[in-house]
User: Fold this.
Amino acid sequence: MEGMGLFILSVRGLPEVWMRPTCKPGASLRTHHCLAASIWSLVGIMLMARGGLFLHAVGKLWLFLPAMAVGTIKSFFMLDKAARKNLVRLAGKEDGDCLGGVYSARMWGLVGAMMALGWLLRRLGLPGEWVGGIYVAIGWALFFSSRLLWQRAIRFPS
Assistant:
């Protein structure tokens, strides 16, 4: 217990400037909105491209359109809701807030979980048309739902 008191005393003795983070990637609210929209769009495009490669490799590129139809449904019923929640959260931020705060901690966790699920999906040995179809559907859903984020980003004052 005494050692902890010494630690607290040594921290309290430091100048206040040393206690503030010096490397905070702060950005304007417009930048936050543009980054949120860009991430959804770029990840969506990347997933659709990878899915298309899977479908092409198994000779079933025609499945691209049905997968997009499934992605459209996913967009309307799931991702649009997430995009709107993120917009509400971004509305409560201030200019200069950390750029990493473009998404909530929960959303960043979901991003990590989705990456892990994508890795697992490729390793399960499922047929290429399944993997490709899932990639295209999720990619299109992200890309399509990014329209809500872009609408706000474009209208946001500079």
In short: The two ends are 52 Å apart (CA to CA). The helical segments are 2-12, 16-19, 29-57, 64-91, 105-123, 128-155. Confidence is low (pLDDT under 50) at residues 1-11.
